[in-house]
Amino acid sequence: MSDCLFCKIIAGEIPSTKIYDDEYVYAFADIDPQAPFHAVIVPKTHITSAAEINSDNSIYIAKIFEAVAKIAENEKLEKGFRVVNNCGEDGGQTVGHLHFHLLARRYLQWPPG
Ligand code: AMP
Ligand code: ZN
Q1: Can you tell me the distance from the alpha carbon of 41 to that of 16, in angstroms, rounded to the nearest whole number?
Q2: CA distances from 83 to 16, 53, 69, 71, 99 (A)
Q3: Which residue's CA is the closest to the ligand 1 atom numbered 12?
Q4: Which band of pLDDT confidence, cut at 50, 70 and 90, is reported for residue 1?
């Protein structure tokens, strides 16, 4: 998608701070962090939101959660972390490329509000 912010970040057309990278997944530092550690994890293919996941593209979800575990180990997040997906208008999604937030290094309240 030529006009997609996260596709441009994946392509290196917009700079980002890399946290993790493999064949399926890219993770980078959130520009407006909501916790001392805040990564944005995206599939390296354009999927608009969690509402678009199906049996043809769900491999990316498995790969994203494999990346979560690797990042948690690399970053020593042994106290825990939270993975968040915002989907659609009421879910608070502001960028139309599927992404998961990985938040850590502070106590995260529940419910989030
Ligand atoms: P969401 O609100 O769930 O759609 O999350 C989008 C996230 O992308 C927000 O946390 C933003 O701070 C983050 N974001 C937007 N632009 C950039 C950027 N250029 N680099 C890194 N993170 C960004
Ligand atoms: Zn995209």
Answers
A1: 12
A2: 20, 17, 11, 12, 10
A3: 32
A4: low
CB 64 within 8 A of CB 44: no
In this structure, the strands spanning 18-21 and 25-29 are antiparallel
- Residue of 38, 46, 97, 99 marked active site: 99
The residue whose C-alpha atom lies closest to atom 13 belonging to ligand 1 is: 30
Kindly report, residue by residue over 30-40, the tens digit of the pLDDT.
999 999 999 99
| HSE of 38, CA atoms in CB hemisphere, 13 A | 11
Ligand having the closest approach to the CA of 48: 2
Atom of ligand 1 nearest to the CA of 85: 3
For the whole model, what pTM was predicted?
A: 0.98
Query: Which residues make beta-bridge pairs with 18?
Result: 28
Q: What sign does the dihedral 31-91-23-2 (CA atoms) show? A: negative
